[in-house]
Amino acid sequence: MKEERLSRQGESREAVQETVAENSVSIKGVLFDFDGTLTVPGAIQFDAIKQDLGCPLNQPILEYIGEQPAEKRARLKEILESHEIVAAKGSIPNRGVTACLGNLGKMKIPFGILTRNSLRSIKTALLCFPRFSMSDFAVVITRDDSLPKPHPDGVIKAAGAMGFSPDELLVVGDFRFDMIAGKNAGAKTAYLTNGGKTTMEEGDPEPDFICRYIMEVIDIIRIVNSWV
User: Fold this and answer.
1) Strand pairing class (188-192; 169-173)
2) How far apart are CA 215 and CA 175, in angstroms?
3) What's the Cα-to-Cα distance from 27 to each of 83, 127, 206, rounded to whole Å?
4) Rounded-to-integer distance, Cα 155 and Cα 183, Å
5) Cα–Cα distance for residue pair 100/192, rounded to 1 Å
6) Rounded CA gap, 29 and 165, in Å?
7) In what order do the strands lie in the sheet with 209-211?
8) pLDDT higher at 68 or 12
9) For a disulfide at 96, which of 38, 89, 165, 215, Cβ 3.0-4.6 Å?
10) Are 15 and 71 in contact (CB under 8 A)?
11) Mind listing the domains of the chain with CATH numbers?
């Protein structure tokens, strides 16, 4: 994977400029994943959830639930949401999130959330954000509103709700499903590593940008929109 990583010091600027030349449409809105992107990674324990659900470790949870008989799905969804609510109550804003969202506000760039979580869990988690609430987000798309990532449905719906075309959005996330959904919708994508290893797999679409920290999203927008 070609890593066109940004930093606050503007390193890899030449590589970024090459990407910008290939993606000349300005960024008018930002769509964030939630867990591990806007929050510190690790609040939700996916392996523990899968164990309680009887879901194989190598299978995504929502897809597993969707395959079960109707009479079983309701109970599995209850188990999943109970885990999500516990994790939501312990959520902590990720490093740089307050500054990043504050800067987007000053730049008049609307931002939203696209998550595989339930709306209830997102509302609960946002209570842990001292500076921001649901009303600060231009759109919040959960599994209650769209087909879950990696399907592009949520990105397309978010773009429509924000009044933009998908190619005017920057999708930011810490998991491969975020990048797949964004790319398949025609949006720009920024993969957030949080200083860790990539979750991208062979054959996945290549992110347009790779960030170590979420504040680098501001650098991406300034460069893509020629504000530097």
Assistant:
1) parallel
2) 17
3) 35, 28, 18
4) 9
5) 13
6) 10
7) 5-6, 209-211, 188-192, 169-173, 29-32, 111-114, 139-141
8) 68
9) 215
10) no
11) 5-40+93-224 (3.40.50.1000), 46-89 (no CATH)
DSSP string, 117-145: S-HHHHHHHHTT-SS--GGGSSEEE-TTT
Token couple for 136: 């600060």
Q: Look up tokens 């929109």; give the residue.
A: 225
Instruction: Using the predicted structure, report yes or no on whether residue 19 has a pLDDT greater than 90.
Output: no
DSSP one-letter string for 5-16: EE-TT-TTHHHH
Q: What is the pTM of this model?
A: 0.89
Q: What single-letter amino acid sits at 227?
A: W
Burial letters for 6-16: b for 16+ Cβ neighbours within 10 Å, e otherwise? beeeeebeeeb
Residue 42: both structure tokens together: 């690790």
| Dihedral sign computed on CA atoms, order 147, 184, 140, 165 | negative
**Helix (H/G/I), strand (E/B), else coil: 56:** coil
